Q: What sequence folds into this?
């Protein structure tokens, strides 16, 4: 890792097809970071964008010596892009994670820094409102946080909190020890622990471009969260199977009893089918559930690198270099 410039703060920004917002974002971010008054860098991670995002990043790096650019070799998804950015962040005091789409207003960073006292390692930004998001998205998000609260046993994920946060160097170093492939960042942030504090903010609607998340990916995201942090679904299927088996045995005894007392009336076909189908369904469900975990074990055991960097251009200087 190139030395020389060691900023106090690093701002990590994963970007996927963000060409429209990037210049505005950088302008607003610079204004805020200047106000804080400590040396800083911003690490833009290009997560295999298919538009001019990378060119935009390089253009910013030309004008501004505090811009680092990490270009991933393809699209790896936000969670991994974020990890790549954290790996390349050189901030010695604090590291800030923020989305590029201006849904997390950069101005809130000033509040995060203000709230960041010696007794806490993380200050996370908690959403006040979800302007511009549909009722159903709000509802699914609400449900997700409540389910996670139930399932995550000791790991408490704060509700209505995204990845937008300020973390201490030691917290990030701990976080980066976790190299698992199925990276549910919200869960990992919570897993490392350390004292934290929340700052409320109003989440703005996306300023340009479009969200790359749809309900299918949200569902997968939720599944990721649940299976990465809980084996309860596995245990659940055990108890469900046990309960159903006990019921089936009772039913069997009842049938035998009836037959012995009243004789065989050869009328068992519908109930037989019902039982077989019911048990078959439960078995399939259980097998599917086990498959979810086996698939994750399979992926983890491959021990592949999380991402590949195509190019890394570190920030050079403390001050803005005037255009030559
Ligand atoms: N992002 C990324 N890789 C992806 C998808 C998204 O780096 O594959 C970035 C994106 O550029 C943005 C942030 O992750 O800075 C959040 O993405 P988005 O706004 O699409 O998510 P939402 O706000 O809807 O949760
Ligand atoms: Mg967004």
A:
């Amino acid at each position: 890792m190139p030395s020389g410039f060691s900023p106090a703060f690093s701002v990590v920004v994963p970007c996927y097809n963000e060409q429209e917002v990037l210049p505005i974002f950088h302008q607003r971010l610079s204004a805020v970071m200047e106000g804080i008054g400590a040396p800083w860098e911003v690490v833009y991670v290009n997560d295999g964008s298919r538009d001019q995002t990378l060119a935009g990043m390089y253009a910013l790096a030309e004008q501004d010596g505090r811009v680092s650019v990490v270009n991933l070799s393809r699209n790896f998804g936000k969670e991994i892009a974020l990890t790549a950015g954290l790996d390349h962040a050189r901030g010695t005091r604090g590291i800030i994670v923020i989305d590029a789409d201006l849904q997390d207003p950069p101005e809130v960073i000033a509040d995060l820094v203000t709230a960041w006292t010696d007794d806490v390692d993380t200050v996370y930004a908690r959403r006040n409102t979800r302007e511009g998001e549909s009722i159903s998205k709000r509802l699914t998000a609400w449900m997700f946080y409540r389910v996670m609260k139930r399932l995550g046993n000791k790991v408490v994920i704060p509700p209505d909190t995204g990845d937008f946060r300020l973390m201490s160097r030691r917290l990030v170093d701990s976080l980066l020890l976790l190299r698992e492939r199925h990276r549910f960042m919200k869960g990992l942030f919570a897993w490392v622990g350390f004292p934290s504090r929340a700052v409320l903010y109003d989440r703005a609607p996306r300023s340009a471009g479009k969200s790359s998340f749809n309900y299918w990916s949200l569902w997968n995201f939720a599944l990721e969260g649940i299976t990465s942090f809980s084996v309860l679904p596995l245990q659940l299927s055990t108890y469900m199977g046990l309960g159903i088996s006990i019921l089936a045995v009772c039913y069997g005894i009842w049938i035998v009893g009836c037959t012995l007392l009243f004789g065989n009336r050869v009328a068992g076909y519908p109930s037989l089918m019902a039982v077989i189908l019911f048990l078959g369904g439960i078995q399939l469900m259980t097998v599917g559930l086990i498959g979810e975990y086996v698939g994750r074990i399979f992926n983890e055991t491959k021990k592949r690198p999380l991402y590949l960097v195509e190019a890394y251009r570190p920030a050079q200087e403390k001050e803005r270099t005037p255009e030559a």
About this structure: The chain has two domains: 9-229+306-313, 232-301. The chain has a mean pLDDT of 82. The radius of gyration is 25 Å. Residues 99, 101, 103, 206, 211 surround magnesium ion (ligand 2) (CB under 6 Å).
